[in-house]
């Protein structure tokens, strides 16, 4: 006898096909409802005040079109932003790169993780006195950032430029104590970022964070002797969240709202090409 075709109402494992389809539809509807509910609560994002506020206004508009509401919370410096995120006062932040976050996680005992790239702000080697690397004199005074993360980054750039060498045992965040060779007898002066940027006229040259160079009125083109490459660079900025939220339903819409062509255009406009959008 031929097997009889299974009808829409013939039970399979105790549940009819029609009922299974209904249950699947109900489950999908439930997920959609959960998504809408999850996104109905504003996502609080901590950022640095300044040009990034203009960027995030566009991100907020992009997110609103998908049903996600973003509440931007501004800070004047970086350290409190991770502390606020770790304490649950924020849902996400967007201002930092990997080595900085690693140091912050260690200091705070936090578990904050990146979830999507934003932009790359290459540090530059600037001088108001000298026009080329080859004219930097012996005994020159070179300014570098005083904070451990960016000091190491600056020293690595000076090493890449052939101005000094760092001990191979220095690790990811070298300091001036890790300089193993200094053929030009450079004096390395550690200064806080805003002071360093403003002090450039008094130095032979300085490795300055892009944001502070821009704020201090340094000419990012004519006074820049060199800058970092983005290739395989750990200092790319990103959106970050507490690890338990890494796969939360609002995370991908948040990242997608940032990684849009209109945000890319605004980044290039707001920073006059000094930073590079870092998503593909």
Task: Write structural notes for this entry.
This protein has 280 residues and is an alpha/beta fold. 36% of the residues lie in helices and 23% in strands. It has 9 helices and 15 strands. The protein has helices spanning 17-40, 51-64, 79-86, 98-108, 148-160, 193-198, 210-215, 251-258, 261-270, and strands at residues 11-12, 15-16, 43-48, 70-75, 92-96, 112-120, 124-126, 141-145, 165-166, 179-181, 187-191, 205-208, 224-227, 236-242, 276-277. Residues 1-38 have low confidence and may be disordered. Keywords: Lipoprotein, Membrane, Palmitate, Signal. It is found in: Membrane. Belongs to the nlpA lipoprotein family.
Order of strands, main sheet, comes to 4-3-5-14-6-15
* Rg for CA atoms: 25 Å
Residue windows where pLDDT falls under 50 for at least 5 positions: 1-38
Order of helices and strands: EEHEHEHEHEEEHEEEHEHEEHHE
Straight-line distance between termini: 60 Å
Structural class: alpha/beta
Report helical residue fraction: 25-40%
Number of strands: 15
Strand content: 15-25%
Number of helices: 9
User: Quick one: biggest sheet?
Assistant: 6 strands, mixed
Overall shape: globular
What's the average pLDDT? 87
InterPro entries: Lipoprotein_NlpA (IPR004872)
Protein name: Lipoprotein
Family: Belongs to the nlpA lipoprotein family.
Keywords: Lipoprotein, Membrane, Palmitate, Signal
